Structures are given as structure tokens and as C-alpha cells.
Amino acid sequence: MSQKQREFKYTQEDFDVLRKISNSHSGIIVTDDKFDMFYSRLAKRIRMLGLADFKEYCEYLEANEASEFTEFINAITTNLTAFFRENHHFEYVKDVIIPDLIKRNHQTKKITVWSAGCSTGEEPYSLAMTLLENLPFGWDVKILATDLDTNVLQTAANGVYGSDRVSGLSDSRLKRWFKKGTGVNSNKVKVDPALQSLLTFKQLNLMHGWPMKGKFDFIFCRNVIIYFDQATKETLVNRYSQYLSTGSHLLIGHSESLHTIETDFDLIGNTVYRKVK
């Protein structure tokens, strides 16, 4: 798209300023091919703020970082997700992790999980379904679900989805875990309160401090580290290690790997890692 066709003037210098801000605050590496995506995602924000062009937006963002950064990062992050996406991970939880935790945690009957980069909530709700469907009655399950983007977290906490989002689920799961809307909401479903009660949604920048205390029984961090450079990946994965006991699992995205970085994890399945130290 040429400048003549664009509503707002937008230069390579503007793009470089914006992606440098993104990287310094979130650790996300923004590649050259995101140039047009930044324009399309941020033009709405510039229009809303009544600014003249991207140069003005860069100046506005730098002057109002505390208030504007969340809006900026919400606009540029991509949130691709689905219920039971990369289903082999949920099968692994059912077949391997849950039986292991039933033995390991038989005294406390407690399981604590972290879904890091939870987007609009389909992943943690899928985890909640998997756990409740396969644990004995009476177990206490807590799932922390975090993301950088506050907009997707609100969607996740509301637990309301278009019917098309659950079209791939079995009839038995739909009947057990979702309530169909009526009237103007007839094309929507709402997650059962039994699932919602297990989840806590929190905004978290993985590059900043982590306020959580204690350890998790396993962590899902899928399609997150793909956005970071090698050094940041290593730092992040080793921080996850501190929140896991030896023998606990870290599950990452299908296009991700830890094989080039120094970690406490061994690969034991398809993008499934176990802490060995």
C-alpha cells in the first residue's frame, strides 16, 4: 500500500520506533514483515486519539507510556487460539500427567496449573475440562491464566463464545460444559460456572516481575517463546523452571523447541518437556 492510499502517513522510521518500544517492554521481536500489520492494527488507535499520523502516535506513546502501552500492545499482539488446539497436549495431560499427579499429590489432593499466554481463554478452559473429566471427585484444582493483552483476558473471564468457536467439540462436552444462549444470544454459548470457578485470569508481562508464590504442577506456555530472541527464550524458560518441581512438565507450542538453549528440561514427547534437575 502506497502512502497515497493510506489514511495516515507511516514511515519505516515510525515502524522502527514502535517495534523498539514493543521489544523493550515485552521482549517481543517484531520482524520486518509486520510493517503493514502494524499500520492496520494501529490506524484505529490513531483515529480514536485524533492524531495526525504515525509520527504523532510515536510521540504520544513515548509521552504517555504508562497509560497507552497496554492499548498499544493489545493492538499489535496476535491471539490465535481454539478449544483443544494441539490436542495431543491435552491427551498427554489425560494419559500421563493426571495419573502421575494422582500418585504424587495423593495427600493434598491439590493441582495447580499455569496457562501462560492464555489469549481469549480457550486453552485454560480446555485444561479445566480435561482435569475435571479425569480426576477423582474431591480434588482441588486451580488454574492461573495470564496474558499481556487485557482485552483478551476480559473475553476469557466472561466465558462467552460464538457457537462457531465450539463447533469442533463433542456433543457430550458441549452438553456438560456449555450453556446455549437464547434470543439475541442464540448464536453464543457460555462456559459452565464449574469451569470458571477453577480459573483466575491475570494480566502479566512475562518480561517483568512474577508475583506468584509456590510451584505449579505443570505449565502450558504455547506459542509464546516463538516471539523472543534466543537469550530471552533461555531466560524465560529458566524462570519457568523455578516454578516447577523436578519431574514436572512444561508444554510449548508445536512450532517451538528448546533444543538450542541451556535448560533444566528434557524433551520426552511432541513439544512436551520434563524438568530433570
Set out the fold topology.
Blueprint (H helix, E strand, L loop, with lengths): L11 H15 L8 H15 L4 H10 L1 H12 L11 H17 L5 E7 L5 H13 L5 E8 L2 H9 L1 E3 L8 H7 E3 L7 E4 L1 H4 L2 E5 L12 E6 L8 H13 L1 E9 L12 E5 L2 E4 L2
Parallel strand pairs: 1-2, 1-7, 2-6, 7-8
Antiparallel strand pairs: 3-5, 4-5, 8-10, 9-10
Helix pairs in contact: 1-3, 2-4, 3-4, 5-6
Please write the string of helix (H) and strand (E) elements: HHHHHEHEHEHEEHEEHEEE
Name given to the CATH architecture of the largest domain: 3-Layer(aba) Sandwich
Low-confidence stretches are none
- Secondary-structure-based class equals alpha/beta
Q: Characterize the overall form.
A: globular
CATH superfamily of the largest domain: Vaccinia Virus protein VP39
Average pLDDT, rounded to a whole number, is 92
How far apart the termini lie comes to 52 Å
Helical residues, percent: 40-55%
Give the total of domains.
2
Q: Evaluate the radius of gyration.
A: 21 Å
How much strand content do the residues show?
Answer: 15-25%
Determine the CATH topology of the largest domain.
Rossmann fold
Main sheet specs:
7 strands, mixed
Strand order, main sheet: write it out: 6-2-1-7-8-10-9
Could you characterize what this model shows?
This protein is an alpha/beta fold and 277 residues long. The protein folds into two domains: 3-76, Chemotaxis receptor methyltransferase CheR, N-terminal domain (Chemotaxis Receptor Methyltransferase Cher, domain 1); 88-275, Rossmann fold, CATH 3.40.50.150. The chain has ten helices and ten strands. Strands 6-2-1-7-8-10-9 form a seven-stranded mixed β-sheet. The chain is globular and about 60 Å long. The chain starts with 11 loop residues before the first helix and ends with a strand.
